[in-house]
Write a structure and sequence with these properties.
By secondary structure, this protein is mainly β. It is 0% helix and 34% strand.
Length: 127
């Protein structure tokens, strides 16, 4: 979220900070709250990281360091590994998120490509 408003997937201007917030799909009957314990945020240009990946361990992400380097056409790549996602129960306790069965790796080798099978991915296009 940026200034309390969801960032559109179609893109928006760079912001000095964002709030990492995951919500259940509006079509889900059961409304679930989630908490992000850590996320990786990368400024990307031409398919390559422009700066080192920022590891964020709180809901508020300070992106002021990205601002002088960003320009239209770049994107901010946000990756939240499933292991860093917690389900908030009705009484406020946190439970580990159990990824979909299709997200579990069938290979014994470490996959170094973060994608939707390993966590939540959001690509924020900068205008």
């Amino acid at each position: 979220m940026r200034n309390g408003v969801e960032i559109p997937a179609t893109g928006s201007a760079m912001a000095p900070g964002i709030r990492l917030q995951i919500t259940s799909d509006p079509e889900c009957r059961e409304k679930v709250s989630y908490r992000v314990t850590a996320a990786e945020i990368t400024l990307v240009r031409g398919g390559r990281p422009l700066l080192p990946t920022l590891l964020v361990k709180q809901p508020q992400a300070d992106l002021r360091g990205f601002m002088p380097h960003s320009r239209s056409g770049d994107y901010v790549y946000v990756f939240i590994p499933y292991k860093n996602l917690r389900v908030v129960s009705a009484d406020g306790t946190l439970q580990p998120y159990l990824p979909p069965a299709s997200a579990k790796s069938e290979s014994r080798q470490r996959d170094v490509t973060p994608d939707a099978a390993q966590g939540i991915v959001f690509k924020w296009i900068l205008l």
